[in-house]
Records
---
Amino acid sequence: MWESFVNIFLNVLLYIYKLIGNFGVAIILFTILIKLVIYPLMRKQIKSSTAMMELNKSPEYLEMMEKYKDNKEKLAEEQMKLYKKSGVNPTASCLPTLVQLPIIFALYQAIIAAIVSTPLGMLDLTKRVNPAFLQIGDIFPINPNFLWMNLGQPERLHIPGLSFGIPVLAVLVIISTWMQTKLTAQPAAGGGDQGGSGAMMTGMMNIYMPVLMGFMAYTLASGLSLYFLISNLFTITQYAIEGKLNWKAMKIGKPDFSAFTGSQSPKQTSAPTRTASKSSSAPASSSPAATDAVEEKIDYREFKNKKKPKKKLQQ
Amino acid sequence: MKNRKLVYLVMLIAFSMILSGCAGNSALNNAVSWPGMTEESGTVYVSYTSSVQAVADGKLVWKYPAEPDKGLMFFASPLVEDGKVYAATYQNEVHVLDQKTGALLNKITLGSNKNKILASPAAGEGKLVIPSNDGSIYGFDLNNLTSPVWTTKHPSEIWVQPLIFENKVYIASLDKQIHVLDLESGKILKSQPSNGAVMSDLILSDGKIYFTTLGKDVSVYDPATDEITSLMTAQNEIWASPLIVDDRIIVADMGGNISCVDLTDGKSVWALNATTPDGADYIANPVALDNGNILFIAENGDLLVYDIDGKSVNVRSANGKMMTTPVIVGDSVITAMIPGDALLRAYTFDLKEDWWYAESTATSTENTPEVTETSTK
């Protein structure tokens, strides 16, 4: 079952290679093809996130947050009712991410299967290629070289005079993953504790995802790194087209966590929270002055540990 | 909160490990191959994974290296020449061993050990030719292995043993080219396109070189005219080398179609379909048995014997995959298999089991067959 899934990827990838004659370009085109296929899902994700953000700022939601702030079970129940009533699926934003996981695994295996270096690998490839679709004799041997890279090996750029290779692609993957995570950060769904955990999760993603992707780009085949890079750039472009890029989040040293503060605002208790300005219908990012004013009051650490704001209040 | 943080971290690490695990499996698949096997004076020399073993009559004669060395991998068929065994490694080295004892006499190291030697070296007319996938072909004087006499750069990988004939080296590369090199200087004299990559040995017969390609083609290279002529096109890709018997050429394609063509007029003599129920490929070269019959081996371990007119004589199955071309020793045909219950299995020409040899897991020493005796007869 899984191998059949991988073989579909392999055959499509090799077919593109047969048409183009360059394996690197084939991976890029294949990545774009994959992203186009899951474009509707991504669009749904963006819309869902936007709807969640709007819902989290609605008076009805804020009132509910205040009413059930001491009963989390009831709060969760009421939240689900509200989501259902509003036609918002809080898990919709997870689907494109989940869909991409098997794609990443399958693509990786397809790349490794395509770039054979031994007779046994070649024999395996001949069994995976659909003869009605491709003639292995026409495309073999596959040239794994693209720019300075061997797409079946971890990428390093060797510069004369340097005794080590520079992992350029891994660096680009780290930067593009960080940018994508920051630029496409959406407000956390839910309120109260959930909002805090959402903020925490996003904060962790900002750190761990670029590191993880960079580590994989550093250690695994550069063909997969190319997929990561193109995939990141495509996602950023997609959000730009939808007009949902959060450019404010790119401010280094002064992160914009306005997106996460919606869940804090219902408390309306003290300085670290956003209050009346948050209840306006305009998105936080569309009101720079208000956002900046709030940002100055927010201590980032409070999203790491929700107990800290209390200490801050006592000061 | 801390627990949740831990869960996220574990999930990310698990994702990373799963992907890395895929890499490990793939790397493993690309790192191994099937055994390489050569016969000389009744002894079979088989290279497989981390050792080269000499086996005679089902008994181990010697094993090299004496102590297991996981840093070495031998898969190319050993070359036996003038009392020495040349065993190429996936670490870009050729270990020169004493044919009788397996003792290491010399070690030829070629550039980076990240490259492999997939094809067997070739020897002839006083020279040793080694193709490496580091992008070079090396020519050595057989009497002086300290440094190559010539090194010729080559843009494509070579998986097929070079053929030395009349002071020239014939090489089939994966980029669908047949090259002719001067044996003395290594200079490329001529390069010609072949209709597909050549995956198995070039066969010299009656002064002409026969080969098959993944492009379904069976061709002949005439050194006298430097011309390549297509003899026939098969229904499927061809991996195994052709077999020349008298004035006939016999070819098995990967789909199990076996064809016999008359070399004098190019007409088909007979054709049959020997597709196995599981659609196994034919990778091993067909061999002519001394009784005049022809043995074909399918990848799934099926052994099929036909007579010269294409009539089925015998069939049997072995418990293991067979991609290695069998060798003939006396009245036995010896096969190598992976992964099976034995490394070598010998059969009589009517496919009755003769003996088997399983690689010992015990630590062995050079030239001490009594320590690693694992065969039965």
---
Amino acid sequence: MIRLDDVGLRYERARGQPRDGARAGGRGHGGGMRDGQTRGSPDEVLRDIALDIPAGAFRWVLGPSGAGKSSLLRLLHLSVLPTRGQMELMGIPIHRARRAVLARLRRRIGVVFQDLRLLPELSAFDNVALRLRLDGLPEARIEREVGEMLRWVGLGAKLDVRPRQLSGGEQQRVAIARAVVHRPPLLLADEPTAALDDRQAVRLIELFRELNQLGSTVLVATHNDGLIRRFPAPALRMDRGTLRSDG
Amino acid sequence: MAEAAASRRRPRDGLGLRRAISDRLLPALVAAMTFLAALTLAGVVGATVLATRWQQGAATILTVQVPRPDDPAGPGEAEPGAIGLGTSANGVAAAGSTRIAAVTALLRASPAVIRLRRLENRELVALLRPWLGGMAESGARAGSAGDGSGTAASNGPMGADRHDGTPPAGAGQGPAARSEADADAAGIGLHGTPESAAGHGHEAGDLTANRAGDGEGGAGSDPRRAETGDTTIAGFALPLPAVLQLRLRDAHTPLGDLPRRLAAVAPETAVEQNGDWSDRLLSLAQSLQACAVLALLVVAGVAAAVVAAATRAGLSARREAIEIVHGLGATDGYIAGRFAERAGVLALGGGIAGTALSLPPLFVLCRLAAPFAGGGPAAPGVIHPALAPADTLGGTVAALFATLPLALWIALPLLPLIASVIGWLTAQATVRTWLRRLP
């Protein structure tokens, strides 16, 4: 499902922008996996990542703040592309894939961003439905599945409410609903329980495990030791941009 | 609640295109561009109409002026087979006939001439009227025997001395330029150009003015003048030439040695082909067409730049939303298509508005250009027949419709569509280029 070989990631800085405000590297910025980036460059936020995760696996992604957990998940979501090394996702070599193929891959990935990334002009329903609309599903089916998903996360009464009218936890549940509504083969979650109470957090991880048992590959970055103990699974341990252990 | 459900059923993509591309500024700018394009298009169509008309009309007309038409003809040329325009009637009618008869016979024998007509007296008078006013008419009444021999536009009055000996105003200007009657008349008008007038300066010698009543042969008192039909001006006798108007089979038929052959039977006969002059006018019209097409391209380019700027502004305003939708798996084609759809619709609206706004000035312009394109003038005091009171609404609409050339009626509706296509294509290209910065 996921194979990384000697992958490095460096965020390109916009002209005149300080290092901390760097933008994600992308093809349009002159990034690329064969750009002669010095191995182990201090500019890299991810260095020498080698990883092989089979389909249907469940992995915790652990590590202190700044270790590179979010960058790894962004890389796996194709929000950024590796600046060196080889990466293969769902059997497709990323460095050779056309843009349309990358877009198709992204549609097969469910993701919960740390910053949620909800569209403020859209209602909770439309935010979740957007994912299915991009897949071209009929509206009747979208209505049914999105309604069911939002009711499951406890927002059945707030389908038409916009994100800014929801609490932080409710917004996070909308983001979660959007990530799983299309039952993705690959599910990435970056601190998905940060704004949830313990009961909601447990319910959420149970949902992820259920999806995992149905065949989805799931990677969850978290600091919640309680959840890790309650749902034991192999972990990817990150430290200062490198992968310390796999499983 | 029902409203919310209904709102939910309306698919939304979160790109916020209503905010991204204003529905006021872009249509207004495109409307302005379309307005300019419509006026330019009218210029293209007008130049095309004029070019076609000049090419098909005046260029095939040849004018032959025969001084002293009723004098005895010369002997003609002896050698056969050397007559211009393929004439095979060498020397026909040369012996024992008048100069005009000999020239006419020579021309009629030419296969290149498909029509030959001698201008009537009243036509000559009409041509002279702008220069000589009522004098021409009264002179014609007084001195003409009515056989129609007279002057032409090009050589007409400008070479004639006035009775006080001062040169006439407007010398060298062909009065027939004002003729609108038909294509033949237009041909005469072209004949009356400064250049052609200059080319007939010799006619001044023919047009000797004799003071009437001075005992030296005013037309009214000169039986010989009356018999020969020379046109006279009131108080003067002007032995004006006969004018023959020929329609050639082809605009570029070479004259060959026709002038020489004609001069042999009627010395000092002048032949003038309008092809050269009409070619120049045609070149002018084609240059105008090229300029207008260039202007259209510039307008289209400016419109594209306007759409590109509006789209880029929209992309900047909606950058975050676009990145989110892109991250959810939207393809470049999907995002570009949504922007292009919005830009295309707005450009279409602007195009329709601009085209509609261009119609009133186009009606007026076409009205002003009508005399040059073969149309007739409106009734006195009426700006345009279409604007005159009509009996019925249908009549008014029909009159308005007839104002613009058919080509313009066909081209104008295409402008909004072209504006829409430009908007669509420009937005597609702009968004796709912008999206390249995303992975």
